[in-house]
Amino acid sequence: MKALHGMLAGLLLSLGTAANAAEVDVCAPFTDGVVDQSIVSTMLDAAGDGHLYRIETSSSKVGFCVESPVGLIEGEFKDFTGGLTFFQENVGDDEHALVMVKAASLETDGVLIENMLKGKKFFDVKNFPEILFVSTGFKWVSDTEAILKGDLTMHGVTKAVGFHVEMVEQPGEHEQRIVVKATTLIHRSEFGLTALSPMVSDSVSLCMSVDAVRYGS
Q1: 182: Cβ contacts below 8 Å, ≥ 6 apart
Q2: What does the angle CA 93 – CA 95 – CA 99 come to, to the nearest 5 degrees?
Q3: Which of 23, 50, 155, 165 has the fewest Cβ atoms nearer than 10 Å?
Q4: What is the spatial distance between Cα 29 and Cα 56, in angstroms, rounded to a whole number?
Q5: What are the distances in angstroms from CA 184 to CA 49, 135, 206, 212?
């Protein structure tokens, strides 16, 4: 169970990179001072030792939902990249993970709503093209549930967030794949997204379904 917890702790700390990307492709978006470069170096070293994990973007989802006068608005980001490290002897304390979401990849059911959300009144994707998450902590609360903490940067504002994580599918004999769900509630006003308040709720649910596999498998 300790090994399983260690692996899940690492896997939960990241969102996606393309399946056949090289190690440098995993970390490239986070260079040039975007995040602490010691984290990037650790991840690159881990790739050479077989300790780097990636998300299957084609089978993973990153999205949100918020109440409005026209009903529940749901959005999903289609372009996200990142990576994580996991070392068998650890139980999550020394794991590192990064995720970057392209805000312009947002899709919703309606073109008008989608364009409004991408515009200056909300995400303002031209001036703030990326949403960044950097993990800072992980704690198990049961055999299948945990709390994932990290810094979320959106619309030019960085805030600490905590995700409730549920393990949906355990890894197999060789611990190559795992599926988890992660959710949290944020207040958009804390990120400077105040347009159409109070008609559109200030509370926004962030939801992730993560299908993660060992790099190179």
Answers
A1: 12, 148, 163, 164, 165, 166, 207, 208, 210
A2: 135
A3: 50
A4: 17
A5: 33, 14, 5, 19
User: Cα-flanking dihedrals φ and ψ of residue 137, to 5°?
Assistant: -175, 160
- The alpha carbon dihedral of 111, 118, 28, 152 has a sign of negative
CATH number of 2-214: 2.40.128.110
- Following DSSP, what letter does each residue of the chain receive, concatenated? -HHHHHHHHHHTT---B-TT--HHHHHGGGTTTTS-HHHHHHHHHHHHTT-EEEEBGGG-EEEEEEEETTEEEEEEE--EEEEEE--TT-SSTT--EEEEEEGGGEE-S-HHHHHHHHSTTTT-TTT--EEEEEEEEEEESSSSEEEEEEEEEETTEEEEEEEEEEEEE---TT--EEEEEEEEEEEGGGGT--TTTTTS-SEEEEEEEEEEEETT-
**Model pTM greater than 0.70?**
yes
Give the number of other CB atoms < 10 A from CB of residue 111.
Answer: 9
**Single-letter code of the amino acid located at 46:** A
Q: Which residue has the higher pLDDT, 40 or 209?
A: 209
